[in-house]
Design brief:
Strand content: 15-25%
Bound molecules: guanosine-5'-diphosphate, magnesium ion
Largest sheet: 7 strands, parallel
Number of domains: 1
Shape: globular
Radius of gyration: 20 Å
CATH architecture: 3-Layer(aba) Sandwich
Number of strands: 7
């Protein structure tokens, strides 16, 4: 990178950090965030009411990139579509990869590309479902953009939130992300088939999730071998 450009970037960073440190700007940022959250919650409430009015069970799945959200959904959808009409909404900054993977298992899918945004919000979901006849579905899943931080700022109006981590992320992954586990109903610790090989301390992960949220249901799964998929479906109420 040319020196002039480097200087420009370091100057911008400096200005930004100085600005954020100023009380009045920090307060403004916090107030704006609160207003955004309030608006999001209002839309999420409306979405949930629409789902309930149409007797739809709804779930949103959050978790890090590569934890196995789509792989788990492929397994879940494969089973549920034998009996139920399933819609899956997938979020990613770009591509239709996940929607295409899930569609192969007989569910209707919609991919939302968020561009630069690191999480789905209720507005995204509302934009999709306002054009749908919800009477055509029994179950709706939403797979969020792979990320353990941003989704904690936005609820989406589903019955339950499922957070997926995998043992390849190390035993500290839950400890480092309290917010998401506090606001989730189910914690899935995936890739349990790799436990022997990796030696990850899964007990610690389970205890961390329970410590942050004593109400949370914690389950270990393997989307590869299918281990505990029946138990996961039971937790979802099927
Ligand atoms: N060994 C193992 N691999 C898995 C498991 N679940 C997902 N994977 C693999 O992990 C990678 C990321 O999975 P994906 O479903 O795309 O994760 P996502 O980003 O959370 O949706 C893929 O290569 C999957 O085949 C699992 O339970 N065990
Ligand atoms: Mg995915």
């Amino acid at each position: 990178m040319p020196n002039k450009e480097k200087l420009e970037i370091s100057r911008i960073k400096e200005v930004e950090s100085t600005n954020l440190a100023r009380d009045e700007i920090r307060d403004e940022v916090i107030e704006t965030k609160k207003a955004v959250e309030r608006d999001n919650n209002l839309i999420a409430d409306k979405i949930h009411q629409d789902f309930l009015n149409n007797s739809i069970k709804s779930f949103d799945i959050v978790g890090a990139i590569g934890a196995g959200k789509t792989a788990l959904l492929e397994k879940i959808v494969e089973i549920l579509t034998q009996k139920y009409r399933v819609l899956v909404i997938c979020g990613d900054i770009t591509t239709r990869v996940d929607a295409d993977r899930i569609e192969k298992h007989n569910a209707e899918t919609i991919q939302i590309n968020t561009g630069r945004e690191c999480a789905l919000n209720a507005y995204h979901i509302h934009q999709i479902i306002k054009n749908k006849n919800l009477q055509n579905y029994d179950v709706i899943f939403i797979e969020n953009v792979g990320n353990l931080i941003c989704p904690s700022e936005f609820v989406l109006g589903t019955d339950k939130r499922i957070t997926v981590v995998s043992i390849t992320e190390g035993e500290w992954v839950i400890e480092k992300h309290p917010m998401l586990f506090k606001m989730s109903d189910i914690a899935v610790i995936n890739k349990i088939d790799l436990k022997e090989r990796l030696g990850t301390n899964v007990e610690k992960m389970i205890n961390d999730a329970k410590k942050f949220n004593p109400e949370i249901e914690v389950i270990t799964t393997s989307a590869k071998t299918g281990e505990n998929m029946d138990k996961l479906l039971e937790l979802l109420g099927f």
